[in-house]
Write a structure and sequence with these properties.
Elements lengths: L2 H14 L2 H4 L2 E4 L15 H5 L2 H7 L3 E4 L3 E2 L11 E5 L6 H13 L3 E6 L9 H6 L13 E2 L19 E4 L4 E4 L14 H16 L4 E4 L19 H9 L5 H11 L7 E6 L7 H5 L8 E4 L7 E2 L2 E5 L4 H15 L6 E2 L9 H4 L7 H14 L3 E5 L20 H12 L4 H11 L36 H7 L4 H14 L2 H4 L1 E5 L6 E7 L4 E7 L5 E2 L7 E6 L8 E2 L4 E6 L3
Parallel strand pairs: 1-2, 1-15, 2-5, 5-9, 9-10, 10-11, 14-15
Antiparallel strand pairs: 3-4, 6-8, 7-8, 12-13, 16-17, 17-18, 18-22, 19-21, 20-22
Helix pairs in contact: 13-17
Bound molecules: 1-deoxynojirimycin (NOJ).
């Protein structure tokens, strides 16, 4: 057999049944997880002190948002040294202890790899901006201005132009995010060498993989032509993402480094749609193991993005999950998630965080843990933590919120009006400290937290959930995590939508040679009639006391299993 064909078959075989499909990811936002030294900022020792909590919950793979050295313009997504730990978080010795602590518990660790851009305080950029002769000049993307203005009309994700003038060299550099996050020039082989070195360094330490930040953005369209779209989402999809060499570059990382380790990679996927998804994650590709596509996360974003809301409903969410499952089939893989550090709390966005907080949180957990893909749970979801509604703009810390606040002010929008948008969609909704107990600052810190705690911590916290036991959201997560582990049908089984007339109902079938399950979700505050013959099934999971068989209560989630006799 041809060598190329042989290696492709091997690649496919290795990915058919594998740990990263079976295990569940839990995302930690280190700044907000647990502070151990009273400086108000979560840290590595804080995480270490909670490893038993995580083990007990039943999650397997911890994804750490960035902990590298950083000036924190974007809370660590602006890295100034890829080989060191930010002192706020601890030391490399703390990191090694954390990794060993996870491994000794049979758990894994994946790091956030942010290499579309660096911090402007990275030594490469510090040198590059000084002179056109700098040896790091080509590490970044420089363009002359046009008629005394920016080289083109590209907007930054965080408001304003994506170009910043540099006086010393009288030209502009590209920054798709803040001006303190200059984009790297992947065309330059030296950049790619440097990135492969970073990958090797962390993999040789024994980490279990990477979450790759905005990875579809790394290959730029070199014409740098004006974007011809109005919607930010369209610009992301057609102008910034999926550039001509993106697959060459990802494949290069795979061939040179990644394939030599038993690890997992998950790419954050702004702009990756179902048409191109398999190019990133097809089992035969030698690129990524899975992506976080953002289609459902971008729902409701209007022309200017998240602070320009437009209506959408639950049928859009159902359609997106079903389209993606169809697009992947048995040939590729995605992660299933409903929130992360960039989007609102899942129970506030997709559930009802007032009258049905517990039930809707459990319904959403059922969904995340039974769709096809590797589930990813964001810290605090297991407690049903909610969005926060600070009254003052000064209580918000996110650079995105503040940049857009300035832009909206210029357009005449009052701070009061803008705050309403932030309450819905701002990123700090998910960045308030983890709520551990009902004591001061929710047991997150003995000092002053870097961002205020959500005032509902006296009621919503881990200690209260543990004390509540059965019935708590936490127990439900634990039960569902075990249930998924026991029933591999939810991992490798097929997925089929059972069409429903009501837009509130999401029914699907998961089945394999051993079992068939039906998942029934009523995503609404109303009762819904069940139009499905259940006589051959037994009830195996419910997020509430069973009521009438033919009626789904508001936010009821049920799992049925086909009888075998
Ligand atoms: C995506 C990350 O998830 C987000 O937090 C960050 O601001 C941008 N990429 C820039 O790195």
């Amino acid at each position: 057999m041809d060598y190329g064909v042989q290696t492709t078959i091997l690649k496919i075989m290795q990915q058919l049944k594998t740990w990263w499909k079976e295990e569940v990811i839990y995302q930690i936002y280190p700044r907000s997880f647990k502070d151990s030294n009273g400086d108000g900022i979560g840290d590595l020792q804080g995480i270490i002190s909670k490893l038993d909590y995580l083990k007990n919950l039943g999650v397997d793979i911890i994804w750490l948002s960035p902990i590298y050295k950083s000036p924190n313009d974007d809370n660590g997504y602006d890295i100034s040294d890829y080989y060191d730990i930010h002192p706020e978080f601890g030391t490399m010795a703390d990191f090694d202890e954390l990794l060993a602590g996870l491994h000794s518990r049979g758990m894994k660790l994946i790091m956030d790899l942010v290499v579309n851009h660096t911090s402007d305080e990275h030594e490469w950029f510090q040198d590059a901006k000084r002179s056109k002769d700098s040896k790091y000049r080509d590490y970044y993307i420089w363009k002359d201005g046009k008629d005394g203005k920016e080289p083109n009309n590209w907007p930054s994700f965080f408001g304003g132009s994506a170009w910043k003038y540099n006086e010393a060299t009288d030209d502009y550099y590209l920054h798709l995010f803040t001006e303190k996050q200059p984009d790297l020039n992947w065309e330059n082989p030296a950049v790619r060498d440097s990135i492969c070195d970073i990958l090797k360094f962390w993999l040789d330490k024994g980490i279990n993989g990477f979450r790759m930040d905005v990875i579809p953005l790394i290959s730029k369209r070199l014409e740098f032509a004006d974007a011809q779209y109005d919607m930010l989402n369209e610009i992301i999809e057609h102008v910034y993402s999926n550039g001509p060499k993106v697959h060459t570059y990802i494949n290069e990382m795979y061939e040179r480094v990644l394939k030599n380790y038993d690890i997992m990679t998950v790419g954050e996927g702004p702009g990756i749609n179902t048409e191109v998804g398999l190019k990133y994650v097809g089992h035969d590709r030698g690129e990524l193991n899975m992506i976080f596509h953002l289609d459902h996360m971008f729902l409701g974003h209007g022309e200017f993005g998240k602070f320009d809301p437009v209506p959408y409903d639950w049928s859009d969410v159902k359609r997106i999950f079903s389209d993606w499952d169809e697009a992947m089939g048995d040939s590729g893989w995605i992660s299933i998630f409903l929130d992360n550090h960039d989007f609102p709390r899942l129970v506030s966005r997709f559930g009802n965080d007032e009258d049905y907080r517990k039930k809707s949180a459990k319904l959403l957990a059922t969904m995340v843990l039974t769709l096809r893909g590797t589930p990813c749970i964001y810290q605090g979801s297991e407690l049903g933590m909610t969005n926060v509604h600070f009254d003052s703009i000064d209580d918000y810390k996110d650079v995105e919120t503040h940049n857009f606040h300035e832009e909206f002010k210029k357009k005449g929008v009052s701070t009061e009006e803008f705050l309403k948008l932030v309450h819905e969609n701002g990123r700090d909704n998910v960045r308030t400290p983890m709520q551990w107990n009902a004591e001061k600052h929710a047991g997150f810190t003995d000092g002053e937290p870097w961002i205020k705690v959500n005032p509902n911590y006296t009621e919503i916290n881990a200690e209260a959930a543990i004390a509540e036991g059965r019935g708590s959201i936490l127990e439900f997560y634990k039960m569902m995590l075990e249930f998924r582990k026991r029933n591999k049908t939810f991992i490798y089984g097929s997925f089929e939508i059972i069409p429903q007339e009501s837009k509130n109902l999401f029914f699907y079938k998961r089945s394999d040679e051993n079992d068939t399950f039906i998942v029934m979700l009523n995503h609404s505050d109303e009762e819904e009639m069940v139009d499905f013959d259940m006589s051959d099934y037994i009830f195996v999971v419910s997020n509430q006391e069973y009521g009438k068989v033919n009626i789904l209560q508001p936010w009821e989630a049920r799992i049925l299993k086909l009888r075998k006799d």
